[in-house]
Design goal:
about 110 residues, single chain, two-stranded parallel sheet, alpha+beta, 2 strands, about 15% strand, about 50% helix
Amino acid sequence: VFYQDLTIPKQIFEVNFFGQLSLTQALLPAMLTTSKVVGGKIVNMSSVCGTGTGSHGNSIYCASKHAVEAWSAALRTELEAFNVDVTTIRAGATCGVPAVAAPCGAT
């Protein structure tokens, strides 16, 4: 919220959301040609911040991960008929293991 311009927020969304979207768009046509027979799986990286809890100082990061959560949920229902499963991994700090950048307010 405190950014003077949108350069950094756009970069965060570009990596966290649009990167995954672009890769999925590139691979999905090939997946759909074989998915009825062998199935398929898309794995998206999210964060515990994307589940709506939010945290102080991480609003843009949390928003980008929430976008991944919402898109993954919608994609899951859209691709179910094609035998393609969508899994979302919600990474977060682990007890006893310090987080590199203390994401989502972890200490």
